[in-house]
Amino acid sequence: MSDQDEDQSVLNQIQRLVTEEHQLYALGARGTSSGTDWEQLAKIQVELDQCWDLINVLDCYYFLSRQRSVHHPEHMIGPAVGSLSINGC
Fold this sequence. Notes:
Elements: H1 3-30, H2 35-69
Helix pairs in contact: 1-2
């Protein structure tokens, strides 16, 4: 699996979680949610927080790599500037 395929897979997972989160919030707004729905929402929120934390760490890592590559381009790690895109964030 290529890096781009892995990135797309992670993005698809995040989008699935966000969609499910919105659906559960909608159930709560209509007053039709159950205790299980709230438990699932809490799990989704933890998983999404972990995804965002990982994205922030990777962004920092890539930033530092780009800074280092100014003087040593052969040490570039990660995607080129602007190649990592997360729609809807």
